[in-house]
Amino acid sequence: MQSLTDLPAPAKLNVFLRVVGRRPDGYHLLQSLFVLLDWHDTIHLERRADGALLRHDLGEALPADDLCLRAARALQHASGCPLGADISVAKVLPSGAGMGGGSSDAATVLLGLNRLWGLGWTREQLAALGLQLGADVPFFIGGRNAIVEGIGERLTPVAVRPRHYVVVKPPAGVMTQAIFGDPDLARDSEPAIVEGFLADPDVMDAILDEAVADSVDGVGSDAQARFQSCNDLQRVAVRYAPEIGQAVEWLQARWGNGQMTGSGSAVFARETAANAPLMATAPGDGLLQAVPTEWKVRWCRSLVEHPLVAWAG
């Protein structure tokens, strides 16, 4: 095998994000529901016999030593593989959005090079290596929508039916370090209960419709599932970048909900039982055009699984 082309690196959204604690080393402990989107970067890989690792930008220029190169270098070193690769990246996902674009690119590079180089690494091995690169990388290697906990290393796959999302990326950005270092950030949210019921897509539909499941078969009556659509980082982020709040309000006025994903600055509205007819026809009804010209707007659909989910065992 000499090359692999048109490998997708999909974005993700945080349907909710809670900061549930902080480790002694300063890392924040999170709990979040990640869903994959059909909006993606594209990666092309070509094997090199000389061991060199080179990146070629087919769209937006990336930093000189981005996560794609770092991922390739880490896998090459950890596996002892003498081969190299030309890595071509067609970047379309916005940077500084909280949508995991860089982490997804790195995960796709790891999955692709694992196959191109014939390494035979398992998903667990790739995820452990990915965690060294970034907290979101293991999720994309895991390949399924999931509750993500800890610092990104604990994944609980969930059954989420596809639904539509409208994503808005205002031009303003926020430094993640500034948000997590802010003294006003809440760090003691109660974690939601996830064991025992998230394999049921009916329950997940209720959660995503902002319902509360008071009890679920197989879970004790005291183990109630209380998922609220929220992002603990949003209040602090809006203070740094008021455009985030403006974009949330724009979405709420049109689709009845809106919130920030990750540490921002992208925000989204999701399809619910109440807005499904409107959300399904959004691209053609002019609502996506009634937006400030400097905002990037995208109508998306969530994925059941990563397109490369079968590429690691």
Q: What does the model show?
A:
With 313 residues, the chain is α+β, with helices and mostly antiparallel strands. The chain folds into two domains: 3-158, Ribosomal Protein S5, domain 2 (2-Layer Sandwich); 164-301, GHMP kinase, C-terminal domain (Alpha-Beta Plaits, 2-Layer Sandwich), CATH 3.30.70.890. It has helices spanning 67-79, 101-116, 123-131, 137-142, 176-181, 201-208, 234-240, 242-255, 276-280; strands spanning 3-22, 28-48, 53-57, 84-90, 146-150, 154-157, 164-169, 259-260, 267-270, 296-301.
The best one-word shape is globular
Measure the end-to-end span: 19 Å
Average pLDDT level = 89
CATH architectural name of the largest domain: 2-Layer Sandwich
What profile does the largest beta sheet have? Answer: 6 strands, mixed
Structural class: alpha+beta
Q: Which parts are unreliable, with pLDDT below 50 for 5 consecutive residues or more?
A: 211-226
CATH topology of the largest domain: Ribosomal Protein S5, domain 2
Q: Assign the CATH class of the largest domain.
A: Alpha Beta
Strand tally is: 10
Summarize the structure.
Helices cover 27% and strands 26% of the residues. It is an alpha+beta fold. Residues 211-226 have low confidence and may be disordered.
Topology:
Blueprint: E1 3-22, E2 28-48, E3 53-57, H1 67-79, E4 84-90, H2 101-116, H3 123-131, H4 137-142, E5 146-150, E6 154-157, E7 164-169, H5 176-181, H6 201-208, H7 234-240, H8 242-255, E8 259-260, E9 267-270, H9 276-280, E10 296-301
Parallel strand pairs: 3-4
Antiparallel strand pairs: 1-2, 2-4, 2-5, 5-6, 7-9, 7-10, 8-9
Helix pairs in contact: 1-2, 7-8
